[in-house]
Amino acid sequence: MSPLILKGVRPYGEGDPVDVLIRDGVIAQIGIVEEDAEVVDGNGAVLLPGFVDLHTHLREPGREDTETIATGSAAAALGGYTAVFAMANTDPVADNAVVVGHVARRGREVGLVDVHPVGAVTVGLEGVKLAELGTMAKAGVRVFSDDGHCVHDPLIMRRALEYSKALDVVVAQHAEEPRLTVGAQAHEGEQASRLGLQGWPAAAEESIVARDCLLALHAGARLHVCHVSTTGTADVLKWAKARGTQVSAEVTPHHLLLTDERLETYDPVNKVNPPLRTAQDVRKLREALAEGVIDCVATDHAPHAVQDKDCEWSAARPGMLGLQTALSIVVEAMVKTGLLDWRGVARVMSERPAEIAGLPDQGRPIEVGEPANLTLVDPDATWTVRGAQFASIAANTPFEGMELPGAVVATLLRGRVTAVGGRIPA
Ligand code: DOR
Ligand code: ZN
Q1: Which residues of 373-404 are buried (b: 16+ CB within 10 A; e: fewer)?
Q2: Is the peptide bond before 353 cis (omega within 30 degrees of 0)?
């Protein structure tokens, strides 16, 4: 691979623009660079470590009509990601070494982003029998989750945490007490009552997070909480962390920006699980992310076919695209509000997720000798969201037509350009 110069870039958005030389997949020089090499013009853009998404639905195997590992990887690269974790709720479920092996292999063949398969906690995501965590861990799985479903049985969750400690992996919980959300269609509150939609109470999330924090503390295990959506969950996390629980948590871009006021039109593009909450929750989630009570941003990128979204609210599947809008939503919700600077963006989009999943070569400092997994961001750009133009097969974005700030200029995976100027290089 020939050397590459990132010309006039600002690491973490700090200081004057510098040139960065990338050679043999690593950062070779920062500062004055005199080398004959291919050039990517930075024009003062912000250089960050490549983003890491702990929560992506790539839909392969099983629903290749909505996303494949190839199209999802392209969306990830265009969104500034250098690593993604592919959730296990595929068909067949990734609850064994064969399926996780297939996902990892396909990811390597496509080669646009490091695709790490998530293994299911229980067989078939049914919550009854533990999957073969050891066999999958041996195959390289570092994160286990029944996402889409909650591991609701406390004994199964306890055993999963105990095994995860022994295997040095992490269990990521989709926190939803299923007995409290039977038939639930929207955040339980005024808006749901007004619209006549059955409520999804905050307590269904908070009670599971509280329980699991206690179980993790008891087991001495690490717990990761998926898509935190309520004020109460942030409070529980703060309390659990203060007590020394090894718990980490993620928030989605949509929960940082959108509220249940969006449900007014009954457009199922806004249907997601956990549901969009209130403006007070949004404020609290932003604060918690800024403070580090919530560790990171994860997309919960959830592609769905037109027929599964363009139907009546109750029949529609929950979920929204996220990979190509995440950075801009974080800029809108966190940077423009002064809650995070670019160091902070690096922390929540790259460093913390890499640490949580134990990736040694992602989320690294921008320093000589470090792997060139990098994202270049134009902080001054604005663009209009057009779901149909995304690399994803599906187009279910709630941000359609919105003008958003900040754009990914280029993404580098081990020194190779995987996206530049909004395109995947040939
Ligand atoms: O909105 C969601 N969509 N939440 C989940 O937990 C699962 C996901 C999906 O797989 O579509
Ligand atoms: Zn989930």
Answers
A1: bbbbbbbeeeeebebeebbbbbbbbbbbeeeb
A2: no
Query: pLDDT digit string (tens) for 150-169?
Result: 999 999 999 999 999 999 99
DSSP state of 134: H
Last residue of a domain, one of 331, 357, 383: 357
Q: Whole domain around residue 278: which residue ranges?
A: 49-357
* Residue 91 zone, left/alpha/beta (φ > 0; ψ -120 to 50; rest): beta
Nearest ligand to the CA atom of 67:
1
**pLDDT band per the 50, 70, 90 thresholds, residue 361:** very high
Q: What is the mean pLDDT of the chain?
A: 98
Position 32 scores a pLDDT of 80
Q: What pLDDT sits at residue 103?
A: 98
Ligand 1: which of 121, 151, 300 to mutate, most ligand atoms within 8 Å of CB? Answer: 300
User: For the chain, what is the domain count?
Assistant: 2
Ligand 1 within 6 A of CB of 148: yes
- The CATH number covering residue 147 comes to 3.20.20.140
Question: What would the two tokens of residue 382 be?
Answer: 């604005």
Same domain, 22 and 139: no
Of ligand 1's atoms, which has the minimum distance to the CA of residue 320? Answer: 1
Q: For residue 328, how far is its CA from the centre of ligand 2 (angstroms)?
A: 22
Q: Is the pLDDT of residue 1 over 90?
A: no
300 is catalytic: yes
> Which is more confidently placed, 124 or 2?
124
In a domain, 157, yes or no: yes
Q: How confident is the model over 116-147, as pLDDT tens digits?
A: 999 999 999 999 999 999 999 999 999 999 99
Same domain for 272 and 160, yes or no, is yes
Q: Which residue among 118, 273, 276 is best mutated to probe the pocket of ligand 1, counting the most ligand atoms within 8 A of its Cβ?
A: 273
Catalytic residue among 300, 308, 361, 380: 300
